[in-house]
Amino acid sequence: MCKCRFCLINIELLCSIIMTFTKVLITI
């Protein structure tokens, strides 16, 4: 399942990329 709120498609890879990108933005 996709736990990302930005994820409309249930793709784990897409979720992982979005989550990682979000974490990077928060870290910066």
Keywords:
28 residues, 1 helix, transmembrane helix, transmembrane, mainly alpha, rod-shaped
How does this structure look, described?
Keywords: Membrane, Transmembrane, Transmembrane helix. The chain crosses the membrane at residues 7-26. With 28 residues, the protein is mostly helical. The protein contains one helix and no strands. The N and C termini lie far apart (28 Å). It has one domain (1-28). The longest helix is centred in the C-terminal third of the chain and has 16 residues, at 12-27.
Task: Give the secondary structure arrangement, pairings included.
Blueprint: H1 12-27
Question: What's the SSE pattern?
Answer: H
Largest sheet: none
The termini sit apart by: 28 Å
In percent, how much strand structure appears in the residues? under 5%
Shape: rod-shaped
Share in helix: 55-70%
Provide a count of the helices: 1
What is the radius of gyration computed over CA atoms, rounded to a whole number of angstroms?
9 Å
Q: pLDDT below 50 for ≥5 consecutive residues: which ranges?
A: none
Number of domains: 1
For the secondary structure, the number of strands is 0
Round the mean pLDDT to the nearest integer and report it.
Answer: 73
Structural class of the helix and strand makeup?
mainly alpha
Short description:
Helices cover 57% and strands 0% of the residues. By secondary structure, it is mainly alpha-helical.
